[in-house]
Amino acid sequence: MGFKQEELVEREREIAGYLLKNFSLKMVSQKTGLSLKHIAAHISNIRIKLKAKDTHELIKLLKVTEL
């Protein structure tokens, strides 16, 4: 796939881990102390880095990538 986990910053890896655990954005916000807007921005950045067209595809890609 060409993706390396080093391409994600620490916070993005943390949020990706929560997505893999099926956490909602609200739950991720509560765990991290970040606003929903910041969580959404991080997810958008992760999607761009992994070249995922949507969050569903992002989660599929994360499952095959060792975080």
Helical element count?
Answer: 4
- Cα radius of gyration in angstroms: 11 Å
Low-confidence stretches: none
Class based on secondary structure composition and strand pairing: mainly alpha
What is the fold named in CATH at topology level? Arc Repressor Mutant, subunit A
Quick check: average pLDDT? 90
Count of structural domains: 1
Question: Mind describing the biggest β-sheet?
Answer: none
Order of helices and strands: HHHH
Number of strands: 0
CATH homologous superfamily heading: Winged helix-like DNA-binding domain superfamily/Winged helix DNA-binding domain
The CATH class is Mainly Alpha
Structure description:
This protein is mostly helical. It has one domain (5-64): Winged helix-like DNA-binding domain superfamily/Winged helix DNA-binding domain (Arc Repressor Mutant, subunit A, Orthogonal Bundle), CATH 1.10.10. It has four helices and no strands. Helix 1 (10-20) crosses helix 3 (36-50). The radius of gyration is 11 Å and the shape is globular.
Name the features.
single chain, 67 residues, mainly alpha, Arc Repressor Mutant, subunit A
Short description:
By secondary structure, this protein is an all-alpha fold. The chain has a single domain (about 5-65), classed as Orthogonal Bundle (Arc Repressor Mutant, subunit A).
Write the layout of secondary structure elements.
Blueprint: H1 10-20, H2 25-32, H3 36-50, H4 55-64
Helix pairs in contact: 1-3, 2-3
